[in-house]
Design goal:
The structure holds two protein chains of two kinds. By secondary structure, chain A is of the alpha/beta class. Chain A has nine helices and ten strands. In chain A, the strands form two sheets. In chain A, strands 6-7-8-3-9-10 form a six-stranded mixed sheet, sandwiched between helices. In chain A, strands 2-1-4-5 form a four-stranded antiparallel sheet, with helices on one face. Chain A is globular, with a radius of gyration of 18 Å. Chain B is an all-alpha fold. Chain B is built from nine helices and no strands. Classes of the chains: A alpha/beta, B mainly alpha.
């Protein structure tokens, strides 16, 4: 189940975070986080609920503002970007939400076409239709093209959510709890899809999860977030080989075959 | 000092005036920024015409049944209630002018706006609120689109544009209700009814009602969108957004009614 990715370029950082701090009221969630993500790499951020994993990727994409520190994405300081520049940067980032966040009032096809129709390089309806069908086919859900999100299962929604981000051909993918609430088989299908996306589109990804199976099968590198900081980073085996009670307890409560 | 203020102070938070007053002024500023952003975005391309038309259809279609009923019933009831008072002076021939003045100047815009505030305002608040709490608005934002333009600008334009149309429709039905009642009791024919009804109506009356409807429509759309767009705290927040949208819209509509009547009287 352990993976190896041939396309990683350790000389090229796509995301660089240093001294990142974020608080909500008196709750200090991130306390000076430092981490880099390399080109072609799948970085898994592992941690318990409420440790600030989702906050981290929301800051990367500019949905939340940090209290301190710097976030550099594809050579651009997110904090210093104008609205227009931020929009341009976001076109290169795909964000897969925990609950998929599909637009209820639109069909699957309309969900996928929505960002493309509004991008400056709008290729026209015929080309969008072609891209939509191609992407849906690649996630195995072409048959759902005219369905509404309410008619789809949890796993299908996740796939469509990922497909919606892929249509913009992103360089970076951010997955927020991609397997949360799914059965083990569907979770494994999503894990395989994440790896397929990495291989086919050469994306660099951050995968937020507390599911160790997902971490092991998708992560080239694991970073464990504890008490607002990355407690340890390394390969899955390195992380869990060392004697550390807090990490070990995390392992013990997950089922790994 | 209240317990919550003490607790906040202990957590290192301090306020300029007090927690509630600070929150009130911050809310006023947020509303100002929201309205300012609307006027900025409404003139800037790209324009979401297709969505505006879709929303216009929804606003009109969703309120049509209720407005048909209330407009017609208002006309009949108002005529029935006014007749005894006028009959005392032998002035039932004034009924057409009385109902046209009452309906076209005041009742049609006000009743239509109040019905729309309940029906459309709550719908906008709940729809955008649920989109906010299920991260659909965030999803639009991270996909490099402009959710404000797609969700807010289109809905506010739709309510603003459709309210005068609904008001005219409601006014027509009110007049029709009044005519049916007058025709049954006084045997007045349609040409005579119309002649007497529009005797006392000026362009200012029609114009002021259209302007009122535009203002009410803008208010309903803006309040609904503001509440929904800024909804928080899950499903509870969605319910609150829908409820607040209706209450605040209705309150503002009455305030605006007083102000606009004063302005119209001043112009008369």
């Amino acid at each position: 189940m352990k993976k190896t990715s041939p396309h990683i370029d350790y000389n090229k950082k796509v995301i660089s975070i240093s001294g990142l701090k974020k608080s909500f009221g008196s709750n200090e969630v991130l306390r000076g986080v430092d981490i880099d993500v390399f080109h072609g790499e799948n970085l898994v951020v592992l941690g318990r609920s409420g440790t600030g994993k989702s906050v981290l990727i929301k800051i990367i994409v500019g949905l939340l503002r940090p209290d301190a520190g710097r976030v550099n994405v594809l050579g651009k300081e997110v904090e210093l970007l104008t609205d227009r520049e931020l929009r341009d940067l976001r076109r290169k980032i795909g964000f897969s939400f925990q609950n998929s966040a599909l637009y209820d009032s639109m069909t699957v096809a309309e969900n996928l076409a929505f960002p493309l129709l509004r991008s400056p390089e709008n290729p026209g309806r015929r080309e969008i239709q072609r891209s939509t069908e191609e992407i849906l086919d690649s996630v195995g859900l072409l048959s759902a093209i005219n369905q509404y999100p309410a008619e789809l299962s949890g796993g299908q929604k996740k796939r469509i959510g990922i497909a919606r981000t892929l249509i913009m051909k992103p360089e970076i993918m951010l997955y927020d709890e991609p397997t949360a609430g799914l059965d083990p088989i569907t979770s494994m299908e999503i894990n395989n899809l994440i790896n397929e996306v990495q291989e086919r589109y050469h994306t660099s990804s951050i995968i937020i999860t507390h599911d160790l199976t997902c971490a092991k099968s998708t992560g080239d590198r694991i970073a464990v977030l504890l008490d607002g900081n990355f407690h340890r980073t390394g390969s899955f085996d390195d992380i869990f080989a060392l004697p550390d009670e807090r990490i070990k307890s995390f392992y013990d409560y997950n089922f790994i075959d | 000092m209240k317990e919550k203020d003490k607790q906040e102070k202990a957590n290192g938070r301090s306020y300029v005036i007090s927690r509630r007053l600070d929150a009130f002024f911050l809310e006023i500023n947020a509303i100002y920024q929201f309205v300012k952003r609307f006027f900025k975005e409404v003139f800037l391309p790209p324009y979401e015409w297709q969505e505006v038309i879709r929303q216009c259809y929804h606003v009109g279609y969703k309120s049509l049944a209720l407005i048909t009923l209330t407009g017609f019933v208002t006309g009949i009831v108002f005529t029935k209630q006014s007749r005894p008072s006028l009959a005392e002076f032998g002035a039932t021939s004034w009924l057409p002018s009385l109902i046209s003045i009452a309906i076209l100047r005041a009742l049609a815009p006000l009743v239509t706006a109040l019905i729309a505030a309940g029906k459309v305002g709550s719908n906008i608040g709940a729809e955008l609120g649920s989109m906010r709490v299920t991260e659909q608005i965030d999803a639009m934002e991270v996909s490099a689109t402009n959710p404000f333009k797609f969700l807010v600008v289109t809905r506010v334009l739709a309510t603003t544009l459709m309210m005068p149309v609904l008001m005219c429709y409601s006014g027509f039905l009110g007049m029709l209700g009044g005519f049916i009642n007058i025709h049954q009791n006084e045997l007045t024919t349609l040409p005579v009814f119309l002649e007497r009804a529009f005797e006392k109506i000026s362009y200012l009356d029609i114009g002021s009602s259209v302007v009122k409807s535009l203002v009410y429509g803008f208010t309903i759309g803006m309040v609904g969108c503001y509440q929904g767009y800024n909804a928080r705290n899950g499903t509870q927040g969605v319910g609150k957004a829908a409820n607040t949208a209706v209450v605040v819209s209705m309150f503002l509509i009455f305030i605006e009614e007083i102000l606009l009547v004063q302005i119209t009287n001043w112009l008369r």
